[in-house]
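Annex B.
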Amino acid sequence: MKRHVHVHFIVSAGGLKLSGKAERFTRYIKRKAKNGRIKKKKVTVLVNKPNWVHWSFFPHKVLRKRYQNLLIEHLKERIQKELRSDAPDPDLMVFSEPSAMKGFFDDLKKEYKN
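Transposase: predicted structure tokens.
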């Protein structure tokens, strides 16, 4: 088995928005941090009907396109390295023709164009 280094991560697509009282409580906490002399208030946080707030600040489309380009370039480099080796894989000999290599990767980039 060959080494296969990769990363998985989970990015939230949003979150629950609490009631107005919760928002006021958050603002109070921020003011309290700036000015310690503010009297402490007892605030109730309501979550009876929370709303979902979509969050789209993570550039997933940009990262997907970048990953696709890196994968295509890596594949191209590996094929070229294999063709230069002493015993190249017979299945990859079709890429020994420069026009075949260029045509294949041009088509591949067009297919994954977003």
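The two ends are 33 Å apart (CA to CA). The beta strands are 14-17, 51-54. Further annotation is deferred to the next reporting cycle.
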